[in-house]
């Protein structure tokens, strides 16, 4: 067995109530490593012959996969990847989350959980070293995130305390869903504790569709040894020290410090559903931000991470003297639960974020979806009758939270429509209002059914500076996995990160990531072989996305639908340092053609047969014949 791996995966069949140990041949692990790449391969292998297009992501046929990679536990700052067929894109996303869940998995002796079927009643999974139990979770079903989490963890803790008094100092890491996941809201996330989440892709809804409330993991085994201990020690020391120095400000304030300054510099922050992307809200520098407002420096974070980017916020409540303590929302949450609504009060932004998390919603996806509804209300497409009497006015956080709740409960026809995500909601709203779909889709800021992260493309001042950033990404609007015309840039880098599975904030350059994987596994990885791993994952993700189904497809007449929302192509930025800038359609065409060429796609955006076969993906090639032009 190579170093770094725990050595086995668990297949948990919730329909039958069985657990089976699974291993993969060395050549599969070498070719796909772990995390996102291996998750894409497993998902594809399990669903490809059903066939892929026929699998409803919210049916028992789908798989829900929790994976780590060889470096998890042996690297300062790594992630758990959740994947399966996405109910938003109908493709595959690698959805990444932090905490200590990954290290606990490895110490329990598992490299991954492959969850299939559907339980007949609500359950949670308790993993204690090699033993995996499926337990009744009926009393936690319907509960909001914190209440359910506390209940399940209390149950586990009491049990452990009775078994071995005084020997269980830690609360086991947990992954769970809130009411949104239970109600199959497609923007439901998998929460990892109170403040972290595998947000993108809708995997909370997949978990809910399986009647699975939570997974709790406790491991007592030593972590597996790296293959080359000396090389590993050298890499660890150098990286840990470098990260402490390199990210001083980031370590001190987290990404949350960026809202006022970063959005102002880059003119790429969503404001009023992306009607604008620039603001003049620079009211504080870092010191004021920390001491005068609401951030408390508190170093907490993922397993062994030297960044420890989690910060606490102390929140003032309007109507009560008490203060709430919460994690400081990160940059994206501050945008998608704040500026996108034209809400700039830090306390309200924090409350919105906590509220969405309590319901188990992906703050980014649901933020985009609800802001879209606010704009349709402003434009008169939606009325008070449609919203159940709510007035959707920019800056009104109370109305915002009321809408989050309506969507979670699928209340009224609008709550039901928005629970399907922004893209499907746009189609339903257009149908009900007798409007052409493109008129409503114009305001839906998403690509491939995934709402955009908090970084716009029009200003070209952010890292999302390409016109095709989201339009051709295999993860759609996910800002953590963006596309660029050049192969060596994105989206290869985040795939390698999610595969290792390194946190993108802690990951060293690609050469060093190859050294890490070599030192840990004992196999020889180079930059080129790592890129090949990433390309295999990319091709599987692209094929799954284009095959899509059963409801939404991203291919029209044999040509991939790689498009930006209408607003980005037609509306110039109304303010800021690059006022007047919009996406140039000619530049978009050029960048898309270059992307197709550099990534081995044909002129219709379908991966070429020879490229797939050179990567050992003959089965993917054959499946794509179903959508290729004859
Ligand atoms: S930088 Fe933050 S998210 Fe990344 S591993 Fe460290 S604590 Fe976790």
Automatic annotation (TrEMBL):
Residues 563-582 are annotated as: Disordered. Its cofactor is [4Fe-4S] cluster; tungstopterin. It comes from the Archaea. Signal peptide: none annotated. Keywords: 4Fe-4S, Iron, Iron-sulfur, Metal-binding, Oxidoreductase. InterPro entries: Ald_Fedxn_OxRdtase_dom2, Ald_Fedxn_OxRdtase_dom3, Ald_Fedxn_OxRdtase_N, Ald_Fedxn_OxRdtase_N_sf, OxRdtase_Ald_Fedxn_C, Tungsten_al_ferr_oxy-like_C, W-dependent_AOR. Residues 5-221 form the Aldehyde ferredoxin oxidoreductase N-terminal domain. It holds the Pfam family AFOR_C. GO terms for molecular function: 4 iron, 4 sulfur cluster binding; electron transfer activity; metal ion binding; oxidoreductase activity, acting on the aldehyde or oxo group of donors, iron-sulfur protein as acceptor. Belongs to the AOR/FOR family. This is Aldehyde ferredoxin oxidoreductase.
